[in-house]
Write a structure and sequence with these properties.
The chain is an alpha+beta fold and 136 residues long. The chain has one domain: Nuclear Transport Factor 2, Chain: A (Roll), CATH 3.10.450.50. The protein has helices at 14-25, 30-34, 55-64, and strands spanning 37-45, 50-53, 72-81, 84-92, 97-107, 110-117.
């Protein structure tokens, strides 16, 4: 499903829009963060087969999510092209640590769609130890 924008061109500010979104997420004011979304915003989590429609649902869902402390979002990597921005973000509440890979679509200065993947850490198999170098 491709978003339709009134202006389809590379917006050099797309990555800045996403950076501002994560700055707002770091305030833990998810209503403030949701102001970055278009009226018809959709977030999809393919791994759990969930779709969240609308700014308010996003803000309520994040506000109600159980946490041990304030959520912190650290952008590890950001790649922007045309109206798409891909981020690799570390997320923690001080106890829970996760990583999200998010594909965001930007139209007319607003985030219209996000598809987010939450990969889980796992132990490397012993049978390839002789071929790899372990990272911290």
């Amino acid at each position: 499903m491709q978003a339709i924008c009134s202006e389809v061109h590379m917006d050099p500010k797309s990555s800045e829009i996403i950076q501002e979104f994560y700055q707002r997420m770091n305030t833990n004011d998810f209503y403030l963060a949701a102001e970055m979304f278009s009226e018809n915003f959709v977030l999809e989590w393919p791994q759990s087969r969930e779709r969240i429609r609308g700014r308010n649902n996003f803000a309520v869902l994040n506000s109600e999510y159980p946490a041990h402390g304030p959520w912190r979002f650290t952008i590890n990597r950001i790649v922007a092209s045309d109206i798409e921005v891909v981020t690799d973000v570390s997320v923690t509440d001080g106890v829970v640590k996760a990583r999200a890979i998010t594909f965001s679509t930007i139209c007319d200065g607003k985030i219209t769609r996000q598809v987010e993947y939450w990969p889980e850490d796992y132990l490397a198999p012993e049978n390839r130890r002789h071929l790899v170098e372990m990272m911290d």
